[in-house]
Amino acid sequence: MIRLGLAGALLLAGCAESRAPEPQANRLPARPTIVSLNPCSDAVLAEVADPAQLLAISHYSHDPRASSMDVGVARRFAVTGGTVEEVLALDPDVVVASPFLAPATRAGLEDMGIAVVSFGIASGIEDSIAQVRELAQLAGDTAAGERLAARIAAAAVPVEGERVATVLWQSGGIVAGEAALVTDLLTRAGFTSHSAARGLGQADYLSLEQVAADPPELLLVAGNEPGQHHPLLDHLTQTRVEPFDPGLVYCGGPTIIRAMERLRTLRTAMLDRRLAKRTASR
After folding, report:
1. Distance (Å, rounded) from C-alpha 16 to C-alpha 22?
2. d(CA 86, CA 148)
3. pLDDT of 126-166, one tens digit each?
4. Which residues pair with 249 in a beta bridge?
5. 267 in helix, strand or coil?
6. What average pLDDT is seen over the chain?
7. Which has the least CB within 10 A, 76, 82, 116, 258?
8. Could you give phi then psi for residue 49, rounded to 5 degrees?
9. Structural contact between residues 136 and 148, judged by C-beta atoms closer than 8 angstroms
10. Cα distance between residue 276 and residue 89, in whole Å
């Protein structure tokens, strides 16, 4: 349920683009103190801000079932549930939130002189890198932002050669759309979208029956719906079924590096599987 709640919030946030810093944010000190209420910004800020600047991150990042960053790293920071009272007690210069922060919360923070800056979900690698740079500039360390941006760009260099038809089966039994960040990662890692080729788009529901009737070469299971772990999947002999950490699906920043490592490993295994089949059929 935690995964589903976070996924829903992130899907909504993904419909909104990053916004330019609000006027209050333009009057921040060079190294402002920060509270992050945005789980996708937590991991970025943990790398581009000084630890003393980051007063708290979202409570999702402490929960292994919901975090998109290393929980051990996340637990070095305090967390907040995002109420005005909690944030005011921390007394930050700026709050980093999603565009769907409750209007009353935003107004309450701004009335108390705390700047609020919103970031949506990145729609692709370039968008994510741009957000990393914006967050680093906000934190006052553009060099750290450039270092992280370079690591992301290096991890996301597109592969050449054979591609693997794949379904990413997400929490709630849905699939990713063509404009999703994870779709960009899959494409760069050498996969094609089996679901998109069958006319399914962003957040469309994919049933177990549909998978069984038209199985992909690779099925990545990133959810816990009963059908996503049904014994029937063991009988899809032409399909390789692999778990995929839901924490790698929605957020950009350093999460991209971990996601690409996992996807490249999976592609290598799939190409080895193809080669073994070709050899056995000779």
Report:
1. 16
2. 30
3. 999 999 999 999 999 999 999 999 999 999 999 999 999 99
4. none
5. helix
6. 92
7. 76
8. -110, 150
9. yes
10. 61
The CA distance from 45 to 53, in Å, is 9
Q: Are 14 and 250 in contact (CB under 8 A)?
A: yes
pTM: 0.89
- Tokens 């980051």, residue? 54
Q: What is the mean pLDDT of residues 257-269?
A: 98
Q: Are 160 and 177 in contact (CB under 8 A)?
A: no
CA-angle at 42, arms to 38 and 46, nearest 5°: 160
The DSSP result for 57-118, as a single string, is EEGGGG-TTT-SS-HHHHTTS-EE---HHHHHHH--SEEEE-TTS-HHHHHHHHHTT-EEEE
The residue ranges of DSSP E strands in 111-267, in sequence order, are 115-118, 164-170, 191-193, 218-222, 240-243
The pair of structure tokens assigned to 183 is 């779709």
List, in order of start, the domains of the chain with CATH numbers.
2-154 (3.40.50.1980), 158-281 (3.40.50.1980)
Q: How big is the chain, counted in residues?
A: 282
